[in-house]
Amino acid sequence: MVLFDEWCKSSIQMPWKFCWTDDEEYKLMESSKQFVESHYTNVKIKNWCHARDGEFKKGDWLLQFNTITGKIYSWMFVNEIIPKKQGEEFYESDPFMAVQLGNHPPSIPFHIDGSFRKIFKKTVDQYGGKKISNLKNSKVPQIFLNLLRSEI
Fold first, then answer.
1. Does the residue 29 lie in any domain?
2. Number of domains the chain contains
3. What's phi and psi for 37, nearest 5 deg?
């Protein structure tokens, strides 16, 4: 199992993106449930997040966290990008839902242990949760990664 400091030192770093929220809960859209029911058999949506157009693609790894508290929720593996129906929550700003079907593959970018949770929260505080929520895309900024590395 790769830890964050090992990921930093690796010449082949599995990429990951931000998947942030400033809310404890957001619901799965009905359009996503209907899509999965019509395209898959005996598969459940395990995880999801709202998405802007072109923000995520199938196969992306997303680190889900709260920009206010810095709390990490989990890794999410994107299996599908599903368009929302007009009128669904955040349709105007985030017209898609990225979904993970079933459990994610075992090859996560790195293990999230207690130590990483602490340095991640500290880095979110230093960088600024509001600044993260205003990013134009979900790519992890180099400045953020540098701050994380400096905490190791």
1. yes
2. 1
3. -60, -35
The structure's pTM equals: 0.94
Question: Which structural domain range is residue 145 located in?
Answer: 15-150
| Pair 127, 144: CB distance under 8 Å | yes
Could you tell me if residue 5 is inside a domain? no
Digit-by-digit pLDDT tens for the chain (152 residues) are 899 999 999 998 999 999 999 876 778 999 999 999 999 999 999 999 999 999 999 999 999 999 999 999 999 999 999 999 999 988 999 999 999 999 888 899 999 999 999 999 999 999 999 999 999 999 999 999 999 999 88
Does residue 128 form part of some domain?
yes
In a domain, 78, yes or no: yes
**Max CA pair span of the chain:** 47
